[in-house]
Input
Amino acid sequence: GFGANLIFGDPAETQETWAETLAFWLQHCQDNFVFLSQLMPYPGSQVFDGRFASKKDYYENIDKQVTNLTQIPDERFKDLLKLTGHMEQEWLFVQAATGVEAQLDGDGYHTIKATCPHCGEESKYRDMIPGVPFFLGLGCTSCNQRMRVNIK
Output
């Protein structure tokens, strides 16, 4: 497997390029660690310069607003971000592991066993599970492909 990040919201981004990137991700990246995120205009970067009153203002409001650097209308931009975030966070199109077993250890962690849908090897993990049903997005320890581990 391989890993990468596809970043949305560059000033040259259009609805068409956004759709093209999502289509590429859906077709070629579901089994690998390719994540979706928004371009962040940090101070010192070219996309930051001239867009904010000051660094102080930016940092005081960084978590209060979405920064649209594109020419896409703000409401549409927010909708596209919401859709992209949902696709990223839910691992909707990632193949599910089989043979999933989760056993509570004495320290609040669970030992989780899961069989990879790609190579068929069993992997073992330790993680905290806040409640069931729950899923973990994990990588196979043998082939490093992404898999969705559904815990019931």
Summary: Residues 106 and 128 are 12 Å apart (CA to CA). The chain has two domains: 3-90, 98-151.
